[in-house]
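Note to self: keep these together.
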Amino acid sequence: MKPRVRRLIAGMALLLFLALYALIAASVGALLVRAPAWLQLSYFAVAGLAWVLPLRPLFVWLSRAEKDAPIP
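Structure:
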């Protein structure tokens, strides 16, 4: 597969995942309206960084494509 196609697929997957993740994280965060401030801060700090973990395989796949691609 050409690197350009891989980048397109990865970009679309990234946008779709982040949109869904933000929707879910915000919905859960809305349930914490009456929670203590330290709990809200902890949740949003973790939720703000946790999106990277499920996307790691996508980033590895994308970087592997560029390593395998012939140099023009």
